[in-house]
Amino acid sequence: MLHRIIPIFIPHLGCPHRCVFCQQYRITGSEKPPSPLAVAETIEKGLQQSGASASEPVEVAFYGGSFTSLPVQVMEGYLKAVQPYLATGKVASIRVSTRPDAISVEVLRLLIEHGVTTVELGVQSLDPEVLACAERGYTGRQVWEAAGLIRKHGLALGIQLMIGLPKDTREKDLATTRDVIKMKPLMVRIYPTLVLKGTRLHQMWEQGLYSPLSMEEAVDITADMFIMLEAEGIKVIRMGLQPTSDLNSPDTLLAGPFHPSFGELVASEVFFRQVLTAWRLWSEKPETEDFGVFVNEKDLSKMVGQNRSNRERLKRGLGVNRLRIAGIKSEERDWVGLGRAEADKPLFVLSRQDFYRAWSGQNHI
Questions:
Q1: Distance between alpha carbon 315 and the CA centroid of its chain, in Å?
Q2: What's the whole-model pTM score?
């Protein structure tokens, strides 16, 4: 079920390590952690905001730090600030993000007692070399143990991954994704690594010891991971960092594949691949030089791509001279259809699930 999120940012709180890439103050735009009173004020403001359905459940989410690494009194102080809203039903649940090595039976019981229903683990990678170079301070085994404990206690498991870390490769990212699938999380976030001012990665970049992914590489790898995860019923709920005024500043972001609509770029890449796959599977193509690509009208912008980039790519990929991309009314989403350019509907349709199976089998990912 979809929730309306009220985010509470607690930058760096509870973090026993300063990872090479991390600068939460600049990522979140929050200069200092909130007090429990400030948490209550943020919830009040969030509840007053318009635009959400009265029936849409509200979730308070603690982001930016390692929540379960906090001293128990601090953790309880934050959780108790939410309790009045849980009691009245104005807030339905609480979500926290934390480190894999900060999960225990005692901690999970405390979270459950206070209404927490989702725990997101900042995993980033399961490759030993990548974890060591990122100075994460935990092992892949600890990730497996934490994920198992969270699911055993009936909590929803979320996992956050990063691509393009030092010593990372596409192969390592896909291997991590395969292992994450086995952990059976409910949701995953994928973030390309960025070089932020004041981080250890900043120093490495200046010294020529680190090179970030290009935008094309980041989109390509993320699209692979998206397809693998979604094919297994695991929702990818975010791709790329949320833009903030600090993150948009050249004084903060020094290098790396940042785009305010990075998720849209990935979605367009997935649609592009889906059309190529449909073209390969379509066995009865009509004899014409004018072809049409059809999608749900609500998916049209993703299919066309930013600056209409997918149109020219598809003409080259399909080997056609003229191509029409059209959106039509449909109850289903994420399908693509192929047919004559002048037609009102496609002759061949490929659903997203059928695409996942065909793409994964062909590309062995």
A1: 30
A2: 0.92
Which pair of tokens denotes residue 200?
């250890």
> Three-class SS of residue 277?
helix
- Structural domain including 29 reads 4-260
Who wins on pLDDT, 360 or 98? Answer: 98
Sequence-ordered list of residues with C-beta below 8 angstroms from that of 83, at least 6 positions apart, any chain: 114, 115
Helix-strand-coil split of the chain, %, nearest 5 = 45, 20, 35
Q: Rounded to whole angstroms, how far apart are CA atoms 85 and 303?
A: 41
In this structure, are 328 and 198 located in the same domain?
no
SS3 249: coil
Number of CB atoms found within 10 A of residue 37's CB: 10
- Helix locations, the chain, DSSP H: 24-28, 36-48, 72-88, 105-113, 128-133, 140-152, 170-183, 200-206, 215-231, 262-281, 300-304, 309-318, 352-363
Do 298 and 318 share a domain, yes or no?
A: yes
Pair of tokens at residue 224: 């692979």
Based on the domain organization, do 154 and 99 belong to the same domain?
Answer: yes
Handedness of CA 251, 255, 256, 259 (dihedral sign): positive
Asked if residues 294 and 337 have their Cβ atoms less than 8 Å apart, the reply is yes
Residues 115 and 207 in one domain: yes
Lowest mean pLDDT among 5-14, 18-27, 121-130: 18-27
Instruction: Enter the DSSP assignment of 100.
Output: G
The pLDDT tens digits of the residues spanning 22-70 come to 875 544 445 578 999 999 999 999 998 854 456 789 999 999 889 999 9
Are 97 and 53 in a shared domain?
yes
CB 318 within 8 A of CB 279: yes
**Residue 200: strand, helix, or coil:** helix
Number of domains in the chain: 2
